[in-house]
Amino acid sequence: MRHIVLVLLSFLCFQKTYSQHDFSNDVDPLIGSMGEGNIFIGPTLPFGMVKPGPDCSLNSNSGYVAPSKDSSMFGISHTHVSGTGGGPKYGNILVCPQLSSNLSSNYKIYRQNEAVSVGYYSTELENKNILLELTATNSVAFHKYKFKNSEKSFVRFDLNHHLGKENSNESQYLVGSELEILSQTELCGYTRVRGGWNQGETYTVFFYAVFDVPFDSVYNGSTTLKFDYNSSKNTVVDGIAAFGFKNNAEVKLKVAISYNSSAKAKQNLVRELPEWNFGQVVLDARKKWSDLLGRIEIDESDLNKRKIFYTTLYHSCLIPSDRTGENPVFESHNAYYDDFYAIWDTYRTVFPLLTIITPIRVTGMINSLLDSYKIYGFLPDASSGNCIGLTQGGTNADVVIADAFIKDIKGIDYNLALKAMMDGSENDPGYFHRFLGRGGVNEYNNNGYVSYNHERHCTRTVEYALCDYSIYKVAKGLGKNSIADKYLQRSSNWKNIWRDTVINNAKGFIWPKTIDGKWVDSTYQTYWSDVTYKFEKEKRIFTPNSFGWGWDDVFYEGNSNQYSLHIMHDVPALIEKCGGALSFENRLDTFFAKKYYDVTNEPCFFTPVLYHFIGKPNKSNLIIDQILNSKFTHQKDGIPGNDDSGAMSSWFAFHAMGLYPNAGQNYYLLTSPKYKSIEIKLDNGNKFIVNTKNFDAKNKYVKKVYLNGKIFNSTSITHQEIMKGGALTFEMSATETDWGIIKNR
Amino acid sequence: MRHIVLVLLSFLCFQKTYSQHDFSNDVDPLIGSMGEGNIFIGPTLPFGMVKPGPDCSLNSNSGYVAPSKDSSMFGISHTHVSGTGGGPKYGNILVCPQLSSNLSSNYKIYRQNEAVSVGYYSTELENKNILLELTATNSVAFHKYKFKNSEKSFVRFDLNHHLGKENSNESQYLVGSELEILSQTELCGYTRVRGGWNQGETYTVFFYAVFDVPFDSVYNGSTTLKFDYNSSKNTVVDGIAAFGFKNNAEVKLKVAISYNSSAKAKQNLVRELPEWNFGQVVLDARKKWSDLLGRIEIDESDLNKRKIFYTTLYHSCLIPSDRTGENPVFESHNAYYDDFYAIWDTYRTVFPLLTIITPIRVTGMINSLLDSYKIYGFLPDASSGNCIGLTQGGTNADVVIADAFIKDIKGIDYNLALKAMMDGSENDPGYFHRFLGRGGVNEYNNNGYVSYNHERHCTRTVEYALCDYSIYKVAKGLGKNSIADKYLQRSSNWKNIWRDTVINNAKGFIWPKTIDGKWVDSTYQTYWSDVTYKFEKEKRIFTPNSFGWGWDDVFYEGNSNQYSLHIMHDVPALIEKCGGALSFENRLDTFFAKKYYDVTNEPCFFTPVLYHFIGKPNKSNLIIDQILNSKFTHQKDGIPGNDDSGAMSSWFAFHAMGLYPNAGQNYYLLTSPKYKSIEIKLDNGNKFIVNTKNFDAKNKYVKKVYLNGKIFNSTSITHQEIMKGGALTFEMSATETDWGIIKNR
């Protein structure tokens, strides 16, 4: 690992420039890279456009596979998403240093001694005969190769490469590619791909690449060609070529990308990265991350515990990708974000977290969503590859907008936003229901629920009701009372699929219903068949635990037991429907005891804090404590389930801070903090500090809470109270307390 | 006009190569260029990809405005459609020779002495100080400029230019552009535009251009820059630049386009047009047209009459554009056609005409439509700018497929086609009903008609019934009887909106109906407001003559009087609904006498031949004769209404040949031919000749018809009978005859 030490040493020469604590040291990008986390591990800036990293398997969503499983790789590709499930997306513009001129698209080389830190990736290849290092600016990847024991040194470009080739449901397909030799050091070209996770339309990733030393040969096809600049200049080759350098070469390579053109990629390079100082680029990237991560300072000396926390913030800022100025689809002066993946995953905790640490991003993202509405008629639930879709639950951008509105996020035309939300609630997307809008919404608006005629009908009804509540909130806030009333009314629609039946002592369930108003007692359920690698269907008796997974199930990523507690916007009504507080408490106890709780998917995110609503917040704390301690670690498999663009991570982050947001509403529920002190540097210049008195793992019960030294008589705090700055102090106890017996708002 | 004579003389040197009759001389591309025809007049190949021509107004669909109205132009742009209405599309990559370095995008120069012939366009500019000549291969425009009395000569590129800037409903919007200087003779770049007629997604037109002489200066912005090759090489400038040449320069310029990349454009140029022989390119273009047009030879010595006929064939082969190998959206080994504009316009006569003169194009177009189905889930009704939509009536590609199936068009997977048609008939496109599929089809399938809840509900019900009949035809032919039965049943759905009321002696009308089954007696009607240049709405009593025009009317491009006779697929049932043959005849008489007939729109195309179905085919002939003689001329305004991608023209062509197809069915109705003899060279090598005995304008009545010398006892002939080859002879008479009293099939 000598090279890593050298690299880190070389950074020190510059480190005097940045004298503050480097929070990027508190991040381990490998957390979540094993198991189901699907975290992107390569160097990138916050919301960075270029995401260079190793592609080790075509079936990996992040491209990466941790070496214990598979230590080979195709090379470094330049576009990725983080934490996602479904069919892989991106993996464009593959570049690989190698000892031979092998051009096969199946060619993989072996790696060892990976070193991964914020803004930096390195690995040794081909029996340690190549050292590959990597860093990045916003749109330019900076590669550094050092060959040894090589007769000749090669760098292969494969523009036909992309992830997801072998996934039959959501495959990516190559539409075209070109590689053009501009000079003895410069290349440009593009790859054009369609499909992938969101079954997206065709996108084109253009690039411009420049070596610091001239190559002396070009290998294209089976023939080895001696390089002749005059004949090779402006030569266009299809897809794949290798470039030869002398033996034991040291080669630096900058690869700039653009979604507009190679010339734009070159402009990006000239603007962002005119120099060849690799170490400085690493430090600049770390500085940008440190500035963002440092918005929250925790008092914790255990580096592993620090890493768990800061890595969750890091994960929450990997995507969507900031591609402002790079929208090839329509013109706008607003910020442009792609890779919302998906808002159904991120509305609960990622957007609320960004609202606290970087609200300007929330402004930009919402304006970008509104731009899409202006063009497509719908607010996206997701987008990738410059194409909107898929839609998982409802039009959950509604919740994001309501959350921003109620938390005073500036720079958004909320009247336009209200129109966008209303249009999404009225216009049935018909056949395109998986891509935008609310599938079955004509039924929902006419009959008060989505019937069994439509896929995911129970999830949809529940989510649409929440979205309608969000519309109510914004309309009300804008003084549009008749609109507000209409949507408040609709926000009760979940009650129309609430079946008043008692199963295992639990009263009432969200239940599938036909268009004629009959409850459905047996239903089809989809599941993966490992052998065929395809979805299959089976008819089963419907029960609260019938597992919903797929697009055409009753529920999406959840079951009736879980969704029947997922009424975030009207918990008091839910409690009533469940037979009152005592019955509700028993139901929650059973839910967690019988492990109906699923930590890996978002519909359960809110369930642990439901005890708050019946005056038992310390029961919430015990459950949360258990989940956090058992499911989140500093190891590579330290994230339970897909991270879903930081959804899982930000869920952790809020609970670690002792605050949990109810997206679309103005408060955070107070839960026991996981660090002794947390200082939030707010965007308005104020500081909000969460302190803990008697901080100790054994002191699991909150006894009292103080705001600025005075007893705070609530188990929730408003966003505006936080924005004023101040100190919230949790006094902890090893034994049960009476905290929270007061009614919640 | 001296230059024109010179040009034509210079062609003669090559003309010995092509000794046959040059049918391209029988075409006048200017027919239809004035009035509402909206014909593209520039040089292009059959279904050619590049369509260079003068852009004279941003509001002109073809770019062109005949000089009597406006003799200025912006320059030559390279992409156009022909005969279309609605918001203009394309008009990309503008190039203009000029005497100054003026770079304004509003800059227009004056033209005079235009000469327009097949494969050739020329005009004099700037007081005859510039001669501009133009020809084209499939994807390369060849420009030739001769400057005189010029201190310096300039060629301006404006990549920000596009048509339709001023149309508020269906504007095109610039998304981005780049112009790159590759060398002292070479340029490349692109323009990226969205919107236009089909409110289409973003498309990119790339180009590669090469001058035959090096420019010596580049003008970009307000500064005049002396050209320095080393500093200007690979310079990228935004949008607009002018290139300077010496005084009185003679400059040739080739502009190749591609929808994939500039490099692909260059490849297109290298493959199609490596030489600089302008005259040869003109001759090659004319040869290609002559070969196609010559598939039908008419016996007519009056050049003007020849031009009327051959120009209709020419118009029918301008679009869709053959962009095989140029699909930037998805990969396929099939032919790729864009600019279906729209099939609702062209299914009746254009596709049937292509089936006769160039069936391989029909194979290619249908396979291209099926490719779109595979990607988008729907067969397009229209496409432009690599984007499918809009949908005007029904899923009328169904009729095209049925027509091809029944006429034995080879190379099509009709099982796939049937699936595509059925999917289109079952999947409601919801909010996207203007773009694909059948809007309101859930209602149509459940209730048997599209109700007043949906726009264009009467047109839709009528067209959907026809489309269902087409599905029936294909299913039946494939032996899928239960499917066939289902769709035959649905093909009667027009009867569900047939109101049995008598108005002005006519019995029964297609009439708007609510979802509850009530007839609608007053309805909103849209109309253009000239002042605001916008659609407006007004509530009126609904009558058979209530004019339908817009997207949200009861009828599209027609009214109840017209659509009530537009039941092409079941005329016997229509006659019965109208009260029997006599009542039907009276109704037709009134229809034509009172000028309810609208020659300018497609819903009336079939009406004149309806007399055939009641045994009065000579009445059809008299009506058709009158329309042909009064509405179609060899003048610039010689086409009534938008040509609609050759719809109007091919309607003429069929009647001129004495044959009229009923699209989706296997026969042609016999009408009196307009030329003494017509020889059709069929694709199978056979010849089918239509002769006329006693051919004279005064002999308007068919007396007898002979097939291969034997009495032919029908007023229609099957496609298979024609394909066998042979001679069909019409014996004409100046007085009424008893021809056709036999019942039609």
What does this structure look like?
The structure is a homodimer of 745-residue chains. Chain A has 745 residues and is α+β, with helices and mostly antiparallel strands. Chain A folds into two domains: 2-292, Distorted Sandwich (Beta-galactosidase, Chain A, domain 5), CATH 2.70.98.10; 296-733, GH92 mannosidase fold. The first copy, chain A, is 28% helix and 25% strand. Chain A has a ten-stranded antiparallel sheet. In chain A, helix 9 runs parallel beside helix 12 (457-477) and helix 12 runs antiparallel to helix 13 (481-490). The relative contact order of chain A is 0.10. Chain A binds chain B through residues 173-176, 178, 180, 182, 190, 192, 194, 201-202, 204, 234, 236, 260-261, 263-264, 266-267, 327-331, 377-378, 427-433, 437, and chain B through 173-176, 178, 180, 182, 190, 192, 194, 201-202, 204, 234, 236, 260-261, 263-264, 266-267, 327-331, 377-378, 427-433, 437.
**CATH fold-level topology of the largest domain in chain A:** GH92 mannosidase fold
How much of the sequence lies in strands of chain A comes to 15-25%
Coarse morphology of chain A: globular
**Through-space gap between termini of chain A:** 56 Å
Number of domains of chain A: 2
Number of strands of chain A: 34
Which CATH architecture of the largest domain in chain A would you pick?
A: 2-Layer Sandwich
Present the secondary structure layout.
The structure is a homodimer of 745-residue chains.
Chain A: H1 2-15, E1 53-55, E2 72-73, E3 75-77, E4 94-98, E5 109-117, E6 120-125, E7 130-136, E8 140-147, E9 153-158, E10 172-181, E11 186-195, E12 200-211, E13 217-220, E14 223-226, H2 229-232, E15 235-237, E16 240-245, E17 250-258, H3 262-272, H4 278-293, E18 296-298, H5 303-316, E19 321-322, E20 337-338, H6 343-346, H7 350-357, H8 359-376, E21 383-384, E22 387-388, H9 397-406, H10 414-426, H11 441-447, H12 457-477, H13 481-490, E23 498-503, E24 506-510, E25 522-529, E26 534-541, H14 560-563, H15 571-577, H16 581-593, H17 617-631, H18 647-657, E27 659-661, E28 667-670, E29 677-681, E30 687-693, E31 701-707, E32 710-711, E33 716-718, H19 719-723, E34 726-733
Parallel strand pairs in A: 30-34
Antiparallel strand pairs in A: 1-3, 2-5, 4-9, 5-6, 6-7, 7-8, 8-17, 9-16, 10-11, 10-15, 11-12, 12-17, 13-14, 13-16, 18-29, 19-20, 21-22, 23-24, 25-26, 27-28, 28-33, 29-30, 31-32, 31-34
